[in-house]
Specification:
The chain is mostly beta strands. It is built from one helix and six strands, in the order E-E-E-E-E-E-H.
Length: 64
C-alpha cells in the first residue's frame, strides 16, 4: 500500500511504494521517481542509481 508524504500545510509532496521484493520507491508529487531503498543492502539510491547513504534515507531525496 502506498504511503503518501505531506508537508506542514497538508499538501502531498511525495509517495513511497513498496515492490514485492521489499524495495521501496520514492516519487515526488508529479510522479517522478526520485530514488529507492534496498533493504537487503540497507542502502538508499537516487533515481540515477547513485548511493545516497546507509539506511532508509528516502525523505532526504525530497529536499534535494
Amino acid at each position: 500500500m502506498p504511503e503518501d508524504i505531506y508537508d506542514n500545510q497538508r499538501r502531498r509532496i511525495g509517495r513511497i511504494t513498496e515492490r514485492s521484493n521489499g524495495i521501496k520507491d520514492l516519487y515526488d508529487a508529479q510522479g517522478r521517481r526520485l530514488g529507492e531503498y534496498r533493504p537487503s543492502e540497507d542502502r538508499t539510491y537516487d533515481a540515477k542509481g547513485n548511493p545516497v547513504g546507509f539506511g532508509n534515507q528516502l525523505i532526504r531525496l525530497l529536499n534535494s
